[in-house]
Amino acid sequence: MHQQPSLGESFRRRLRDNLCSCSCSTAETPAGPEKTAMPPGSALSQHQLDRVKVAKVALEAYYHNLAAQHTDRVKRYELLEQTMDEEELNLDQKQERREQHSQKETEFLRVRRARLTVDDFEPLKVIGKGAFGQVRLVQKRDTGHIYAMKILKKADILEKDQVAHSRAERDIMAKADNAWVVKMYYSFQDQSSLYLVMEFLPGGDIMSLLIKRDTLTEVETQFYIGECLLALDSIHRMGFIHRDVKPDNLLLDSRGHLKLSDFGLCTGLKKAHRTDFYRNLSAAQPADFAWHPTDSRHRAESWKHRRRQLAYSTVGTPDYIAPEVFSNSGYNKSVDFWSVGVIMFEMLVGFPPFCSDTPQETYRKVMRWRETLCFPPEIPVSKEAREAIQSLCCDAQQRLGDLAEVKLEAFFSDLDWDHLRERPAAITVNIKAIDDTSNFDQFPDADLKWPTTTAEKGHERYRKDLAFINYTYKAFAAFADPQ
């Protein structure tokens, strides 16, 4: 009996046929009116090689997307059936739900085919800036929905070798579908920029909260660190390591609960976090890091003054980065737990344990953490909190390695992990409207014009095309979920 090829095998066959056709036609088609076809056996020009490469990647992406879309559609239908069973609907009610779902799926296919551009959005306000672009509050013209749009400049990403990181951010946000990760609704591009359209979280970020409050109580710290650990566990289970956990990247929703953001493009992946930026700095002596108990107030004031500038800097700060990341000796998901320990210290003390006037000096302190991780004697921190921090900020082999181990720490003994997101937040967030930006920095002089695009030709155009192929994404939730 003849066996039908699987969906994946059919895709691979079609891909192979298309690639062969593409390669042959590229080699034989004139590049312009003044050129003739290359004789058989001649080497391909760089321009033709670029075209073949772009076509190959585009076709691979196309068939991969077809398979992924089919899988997602099946999952949505299975979820619908499960939900209807749980609600104990009768046959007529189930059939009505199925018809409504089918109509949504059909409409979503139509929406997916429509090309998205910046003209589909009304820019309202700039709410953040970074090394590669900015974040804006925008409103979708046809629905009126409010979003946060991250705009990244392609030229800067290519120049600073951040293509892989920009793709990683887009991919994890497209894959993540849980309450702990900022939801991405769309991603698209034009010739000059990449655009990530995400849910707008009006509560601001933990950095802003710490700047306002200086320190948090141990009860408040327990709540936010607990939510941060649950959020990290959700992406660790997906096979990802955040690598850039810091207060700037912990956002708060309208209820004051935490979500992870910025997967790949912020401080942890900038030059200041590369080992070569700190060459010849490891010869520092322990005396260079001597603790002066009387300077904690000065350090807290200095840190608070510089913190916002560091967030926008192209250099950034290595305060939250685990030492093994710098040593190039390999690392695992426990680097995220180190970062959580640093944030916990900052919440209770008012500044991170390794903060200094320069990134280089901070790096020295991180690398010699055994001498520099000290608690100011004049600031009360409980024994349980100290032990939790020391279990997170320690040698990689002894560090707490997963959420199950963290839950055993005495500091978290009375935390209801299973219902943390359902309970009221430790600190109430006051939101006046869906587009309230009072918890964000204000940029009154920011230009709201969309980035201009310039036509490019030849190799540079194909280089950009190849780098950002398959960046476009549309979530079913963007169409199906009311705001």
Automatic annotation (TrEMBL):
InterPro entries: AGC-kinase_C, Kinase-like_dom_sf, Pkinase_C, Prot_kinase_dom, Protein_kinase_ATP_BS, Rho-assoc_Ser/Thr_Kinase, Ser/Thr_kinase_AS. PROSITE patterns: AGC_KINASE_CTER, PROTEIN_KINASE_ATP, PROTEIN_KINASE_DOM, PROTEIN_KINASE_ST. It is found in: Cytoplasm. It comes from the Eukaryota. GO terms for cellular component: cell periphery; cytoplasm. Its EC number is 2.7.11.1. Keywords: ATP-binding, Cytoplasm, Kinase, Nucleotide-binding, Phosphoprotein, Serine/threonine-protein kinase, Transferase. It catalyses: L-seryl-[protein] + ATP = O-phospho-L-seryl-[protein] + ADP + H(+); L-threonyl-[protein] + ATP = O-phospho-L-threonyl-[protein] + ADP + H(+). The keyword Amino-acid biosynthesis does not apply. Its main location: cytoplasm. The keyword DNA-binding does not apply. It is an enzyme of class 2 (transferase). Belongs to the protein kinase superfamily. AGC Ser/Thr protein kinase family. This is non-specific serine/threonine protein kinase. It comes from Macrostomum lignano.
